């Protein structure tokens, strides 16, 4: 393969890697990744990174894992779809990697003043670690306790999580969240705009705000819809409007119900919730753009509107 690469016989290299990808085992992933990089063959990189993410726990215990770069480790820590049972496995993998870097002066010195531990903790899902694990394991790691920045990240993560508990976001819902400290900090202002007075959050809002670890199959709509439908949430329910009719999804019952028909049919409209009503703006009628404005009030199940 090196000869083919040297002679720029790209098609042969492609076929060789295709052959290996079809037969790859977890022990082969990192050696193949390193070899690909040694001959500047970048086509294989993303495929192998995804394969490693899918077999992260097994691969993180291989000797080659300790030879990954800081950029590679950060890439895995940030990934939303990392095949793990819990965040402890990620922390333990990072701990093994950092400990190995510290034991090898040549590896450690190249980072200079960069606090790599802080950056990895920052992007890790620290709030998903249990309080007992933080106390018994995390806070006993020298690379964390010796770094004020690492300690700041841990303390901020614990503080932010306690704030969300005070806002009555149930722990059983939190357990479904794959949440990093960086997401908490970025979304703090968004969270303040959402009412958390109830014990649940509407599914669409929940999915957009937080990266959920898994998908759950819900009830199908009453009618098939294409991408010209308009949707929005109001009072913890999802409303979808298309053409003449619309539907309402209630996550409490996992059921769709039909709502009253619009005054005028509309496709490709924009929907927004305001003051207890849903507004349907613009759209097309028989292919022609309109300036229609229609308002639906769930309390009365009626539409009113100003037509073009």
From TrEMBL:
Top-level taxon of the source organism: Eukaryota
Record-linked InterPro entries: BACK, Kelch-typ_b-propeller, Kelch_1
Keyword Nucleotide-binding: no
Acyltransferase among keywords: no
Upper taxonomic lineage: Eukaryota, Metazoa, Ecdysozoa, Nematoda, Chromadorea
Protein name: BTB And C-terminal Kelch domain containing protein
Signal peptide: none
Any one Pfam family match given in the protein's UniProt record, by short name: Kelch_1
Transmembrane segments: none
A GO cellular component entry from the record: cytoplasm
GO BP annotation list: proteasome-mediated ubiquitin-dependent protein catabolic process
Organism: Pristionchus pacificus (Parasitic nematode worm)
Gene Ontology MF annotations: ubiquitin-like ligase-substrate adaptor activity
């Amino acid at each position: 393969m090196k000869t083919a690469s040297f002679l720029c016989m790209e098609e042969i290299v492609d076929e060789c890697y295709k052959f290996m990808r079809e037969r790859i085992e977890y022990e082969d992933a990192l050696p193949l990744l390193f070899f690909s990089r040694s001959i500047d063959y970048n086509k294989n990189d993303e495929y192998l990174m995804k394969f490693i993410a899918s077999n992260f726990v097994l691969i993180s215990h291989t000797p080659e894992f300790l030879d990954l770069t800081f950029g590679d480790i950060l890439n895995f820590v940030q990934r939303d779809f990392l095949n793990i049972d819990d965040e402890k496995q990620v922390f333990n993998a990072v701990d093994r990697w950092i400990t190995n870097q510290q034991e090898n002066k040549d590896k450690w010195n190249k980072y200079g003043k960069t606090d790599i531990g802080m950056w990895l903790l920052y992007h890790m899902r620290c709030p998903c670690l249990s309080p007992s694990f933080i106390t018994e394991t995390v806070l006993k790691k020298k690379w964390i306790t010796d770094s004020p920045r690492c300690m700041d990240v841990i303390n901020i993560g614990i503080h932010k999580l306690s704030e969300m508990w005070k806002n009555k976001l149930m722990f059983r819902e939190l357990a479904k969240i794959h949440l990093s400290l960086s997401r908490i900090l970025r979304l703090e202002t968004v969270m303040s705009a959402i009412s958390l007075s109830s014990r649940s959050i509407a599914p669409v809002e929940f999915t957009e705000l937080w990266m959920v670890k898994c998908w759950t199959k819900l009830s199908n709509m009453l009618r098939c819809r294409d991408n010209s439908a308009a949707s929005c949430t109001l009072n913890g329910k999802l409303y979808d409007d298309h053409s003449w009719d619309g539907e309402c999804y209630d996550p409490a019952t996992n059921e769709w119900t039909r709502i009253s028909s619009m005054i005028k049919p509309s496709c490709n409209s924009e929907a927004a919730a305001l003051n207890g009503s849903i507004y349907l703006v613009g759209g097309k009628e028989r292919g022609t753009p309109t300036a229609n404005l229609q308002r639906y009030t769930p309390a009365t199940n009626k539409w009113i509107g100003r037509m073009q």
